[in-house]
Amino acid sequence: MIVKELQIPRKVIILEALLRRLPKTHPQRLKIEEERARSMAGYKGEQTIDYHLRSLEDQKYYIFHDVRLKERKDYYFQIDILILSPYFILILEVKNISGTLTFNQNFKQLIRTTSDGVEDCFPDPILQVSEQEYQLKHWLEQFNFASIPVLSLIVITNSSSQIRMEPFDKKVLNKVVRNKMLRTKINEFEKIYRDEKFSGKEMRKIKKLILKHHTEYDYPALEKFNISPSELITGIHCPHCSTLPMVREMRSWSCSHCHHQSKVAFLPSIMDYVLLVKQEFTNRDIRYFLNIASEQTSLRLLTSNGHIKPIGDTKNRKYHMKISPTLDTFLRK
């Protein structure tokens, strides 16, 4: 049973917001586009695995996509896919990388060689999942779950990539699989780990704990790319084609490029502000960011929908918008 569905990563949503708010000639634009492409590659890699995971027995497995948990104060660890069963917990690290992939366990690194001979070095995924195993065990111990085996696999989802070892290492053979072999590998684990560690009640408790303690990562895009909020293009963007700015016509906004009209076009632009600048904002902040001249107009927009919540008394009032991939999809319609 997939209890935490795969969704477009918040990091991708943030980078898309940044790209539409930057001038086409901005010097950091290419780096941002490359980072977005890497994040989308990971997302698409997980999509290919999703198909194979849905064949697992619903009552026997709980499957979580993109889990981020706090191990200790201000330190989080993230898992691409976590599979919870009564017999073991399985961590999947998804790699959607093209080219020839060489796992070098002497130097703990992964080398990707492209078709034109260019080499790129990545951190060792085997070391990465070993650390995740330790972190998850430590996290479970906080809730008195300490006896279950925690396993891990690196899943290569790009069908055109070649996998090599240098030198030969049995650990690589045991840890690295292609997505089409994932179900077979899980069957092997089922034959090895036969002792039930969790009852159905305990499984449900752990499921609730993971969902409760999962925390989204608010990727600090402006900080990462050394961009000031003053460099962002202001105004209300078109939810359909991202053209800036839309034009106010009566009680709706109109796009000069695709002619889309919307009465709630301001909401995706407020979401841009929350994703890029800060989560709590004032009426004045939004007036400036949306290019709205009237204080009363912006106040009416902030208080006329259920997506924005007020914080504090009237004099010092701020507002908050809770962001989710579901909300992002809704606001694009």
UniProtKB/TrEMBL annotation:
Residues 41-159 form the NERD domain. InterPro entries: NERD. This is NERD domain-containing protein. It comes from Falsibacillus albus.
